[in-house]
């Protein structure tokens, strides 16, 4: 749990530590790019995270290189590592991830049908330390709250506003400590506790007063008074939303946020949320020491006690000497283990699956674990299924739920993405200065084949020295495409596990393959409920459940399609029928919105339309004659298309090849009866 931790925002870390590094000024956007570069993220991933183009990212990188006088990304990394701000950049990166996760959770709350109004009342100067108004206003709006702001510098105006009539559902007072105490105690003086005047003036009011407690007030009987401490801003916002949106389960969102942060922290060794400057650490240590000394000196008969303690310590000292060797060895082992852990931090690039979008499928996870349970050599499992069945999410979840020395997701969709993934892995594996220098030299090699071999050797060397790793090869078209990058021999790669995700039906025959089937109706409904169930009364009536189930019957039975439909309904607040109508039309704007929604909530970048379009593109690229066959199939009934009709249009060899490809990309039913002369095939209707 992190509720009691003090979290620094990305812009706070930037202003205090990263605005200027070694007398070189950087813009906030440049620091963001540097942070992602330092963490091994590609330009494409960085662009996706910040919703900008890859060209914009590359432009920032060029500007950064120009400022530093270097000509490579490694030069940027070297500069940060030697600047003394390495830890600051890492904390900044982690802070960005947490801040983004927080805002994503707020956006999920914005679909509440009731329009809630809130007024922020700030006392004191607008540039005071307690000025969180702009940030709070922005985040309340993300949660669907209509926000207005009032500034009250004069205590008298503040006191008058306190009794004023407002059409807002809630007034949130953001006050310096002194002004808050003066306001509340002045009100208590004018309305003593034995007065008949009810304390309704405190209803629908929230007070954000830094470092104040009820004991500072002249009365502690104000049960309706909310004093929210702002030490941890994120959880302070959640507390405010509990008041503003009592019909929603905010506690569930807090748990979701906690879990997301826990996962982020577990893979960020040990870049803790709480962050103190060097001066703050020294000050805290001094305060603790002085406090202990003062308490000791105030103790009665401390001189006599000190003499007794001295004798006692002498006895303890003799006892300790007898165990000196054992303790020394234990301490050395502890130090060595700690140093080893520090030298070999957890390496991963896995995206954390959101609990709100992840359908728990324990049977499949158990199958994966069962096929990978052997410890000898390299164990491999293939997850086979149409795009959108949740193969990648399952692989990532398995990687997060099990303990590995390293987990890395390799984008195997194209030769270029495969090479880039291994270059990023090589960068992450380069821990020492010598290794980093070696990698820089490798990248300067002109011959592409030699460069790839040396990068691969560097990765192999690291994996062999760190057994029990996990590699996830995502979107493999066929095994031959990854042959040069696949760990066949454990004597070269070391011992580890491999998960391959693929849409290729030809890999079903592999002994260690797992077919990821479509969702059953109850699984579709469970995922739909998990995403949609924000209000306590959601689907409370049987007729509502029946409408939802009927709607889901028209949605393809895959996690991708159910997730997109659920979030589209939440984000746009349209009816079931309206969504199905747009799904049938499937115009460009509708597909673009779908893509943005699924990318924002899960990091996945393909919609059902995108998957089908990519499959058709690959089929068309396979043979020039396939275009005519696809046109023919689109003009006739999709059910029971006669094989003889296709044979009459093209040669049997071309038709055989065509059927192989459309079956490979799951465009026809898996079972095809070719035993008779009048065999037929059917296009999958739910895709």
Give structural attributes.
Rossmann fold; Arc Repressor Mutant, subunit A; 10% strand; six-stranded parallel sheet; 29 helices; five-stranded parallel sheet
What's the count of strands?
A: 15
CATH fold group of the largest domain? Rossmann fold
| Share of residues in strands | 5-15%
Q: How many structural domains in the coordinates?
A: 6
CATH architecture designation of the largest domain: 3-Layer(aba) Sandwich
What would you call the shape?
globular
In the CATH hierarchy, what is the class of the largest domain? Alpha Beta
The overall average pLDDT, rounded, is 75
Q: Uncertain segments of ≥5 residues (pLDDT<50)?
A: 1-5, 192-201, 217-225, 269-282, 333-344
Description:
- With 687 residues, this protein is of the alpha/beta class.
- The protein folds into six domains: 1-114 and 247-273, Winged helix-like DNA-binding domain superfamily/Winged helix DNA-binding domain (Arc Repressor Mutant, subunit A), CATH 1.10.10; 120-246, Rossmann fold (3-Layer(aba) Sandwich), CATH 3.40.50; 309-344; 347-515, 3-Layer(aba) Sandwich (Rossmann fold); 521-609, no CATH class; 623-681.
- 55% of the residues lie in helices and 10% in strands.
- It is built from 29 helices and 15 strands.
- Strands 8-10-11-12-9-13 form a six-stranded parallel beta sheet, sandwiched between helices. It has a five-stranded parallel beta sheet with strand order 4-3-5-6-7. Strands 1-2 form a two-stranded antiparallel ribbon.
- The longest helix has 23 residues, at 86-108.
- The protein is globular, with a radius of gyration of 31 Å.
- The model is unreliable at 1-5, 192-201, 217-225, 269-282 and 333-344 (pLDDT under 50).
């Amino acid at each position: 749990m992190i509720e009691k931790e003090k979290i620094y925002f990305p812009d706070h870390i930037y202003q205090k530590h990263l605005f200027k590094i070694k007398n070189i000024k950087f813009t906030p956007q440049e620091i963001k790019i540097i942070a992602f570069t330092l963490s091994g993220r590609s330009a494409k991933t960085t662009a996706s995270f910040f919703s900008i183009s890859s060209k914009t990212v590359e432009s920032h990188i060029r500007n950064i290189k120009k400022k530093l006088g270097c000509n490579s990304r490694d030069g940027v990394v070297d500069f940060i590592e030697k600047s003394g701000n390495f830890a600051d950049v890492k904390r900044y990166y982690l802070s960005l991830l947490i801040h983004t996760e927080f805002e994503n959770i707020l956006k999920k709350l914005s679909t509440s049908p009731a329009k809630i109004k809130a007024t922020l009342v700030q006392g004191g100067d607008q540039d005071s330390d307690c000025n969180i108004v702009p940030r709070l206003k922005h985040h309340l709006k993300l949660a669907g709250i209509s926000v207005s702001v009032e500034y009250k510098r004069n205590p008298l105006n503040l006191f008058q506003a306190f009794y004023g009539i407002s059409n807002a559902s809630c007034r949130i007072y953001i006050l310096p400590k002194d002004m808050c105490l003066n306001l509340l105690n002045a009100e208590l003086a004018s309305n003593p506790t034995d007065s008949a005047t009810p304390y309704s003036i405190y209803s629908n009011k929230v007070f954000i007063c830094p470092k104040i407690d009820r004991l500072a007030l002249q009365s502690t009987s104000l049960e309706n008074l909310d004093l929210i401490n702002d030490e941890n801003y994120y959880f302070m916002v959640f507390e405010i939303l509990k008041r503003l949106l009592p019909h929603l389960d905010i506690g569930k969102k807090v748990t979701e946020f906690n879990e997301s942060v826990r996962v982020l922290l577990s893979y960020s060794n040990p870049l803790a949320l709480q962050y103190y400057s060097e001066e703050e650490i020294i000050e805290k240590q001094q305060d603790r020491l002085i406090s202990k000394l003062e308490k000791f000196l105030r103790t009665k008969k401390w001189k006599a006690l000190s003499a007794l303690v001295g004798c006692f310590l002498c006895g303890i000292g003799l006892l300790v000497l007898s165990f000196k060797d054992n303790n020394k060895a234990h301490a050395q082992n502890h130090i060595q283990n700690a140093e080893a852990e520090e030298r070999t931090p957890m390496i991963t690039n896995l995206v954390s699956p959101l609990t709100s979008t992840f359908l728990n499928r324990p049977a499949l996870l158990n199958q994966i674990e069962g096929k990978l349970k052997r410890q000898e050599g390299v164990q491999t499992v293939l997850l086979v299924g149409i795009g959108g069945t949740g193969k990648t999410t399952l692989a990532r979840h398995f990687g997060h739920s099990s303990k590995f020395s390293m987990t890395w997701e390799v984008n195997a969709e194209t030769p270029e993405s495969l090479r880039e993934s291994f270059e990023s892995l090589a960068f992450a594996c380069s821990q020492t200065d010598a290794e980093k220098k070696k990698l820089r030299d490798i990248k300067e090699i002109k011959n592409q084949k030699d460069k790839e071999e040396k990068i691969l050797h560097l990765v192999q060397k690291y994996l062999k020295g760190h057994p029990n790793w996990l590699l996830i090869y995502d979107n493999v078209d066929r095994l031959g495409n990854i042959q040069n990058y696949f760990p066949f021999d454990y004597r070269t790669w070391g011992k580890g596990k491999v998960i391959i995700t693929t849409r290729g039906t030809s890999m079903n025959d592999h002994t260690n393959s797992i077919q990821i089937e479509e969702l059953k109706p109850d699984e579709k409904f469970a995922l739909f409920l998990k995403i949609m169930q924000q209000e306590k009364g959601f689907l409370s009536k049987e007729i509502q459940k029946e409408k939802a189930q009927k709607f889901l019957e028209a949605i393809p039975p895959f996690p991708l399609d159910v997730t997109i439909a659920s979030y589209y309904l939440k984000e746009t607040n349209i009816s079931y029928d309206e969504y199905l109508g747009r799904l049938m039309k499937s115009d460009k704007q509708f597909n673009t919105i779908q893509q943005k929604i699924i990318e924002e909530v899960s990091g996945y970048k393909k919609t059902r339309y995108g998957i089908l379009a990519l499959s058709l593109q690959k089929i068309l690229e396979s043979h020039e004659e396939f275009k005519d066959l696809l046109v023919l199939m689109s003009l006739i009934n999709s059910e029971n298309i006669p094989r003889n009709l296709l044979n009459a249009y093209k040669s049997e060899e071309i038709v055989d090849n065509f059927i192989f490809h459309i079956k490979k990309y799951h465009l026809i039913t898996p079972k095809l009866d070719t035993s008779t002369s009048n065999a037929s095939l059917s296009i999958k209707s739910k895709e």
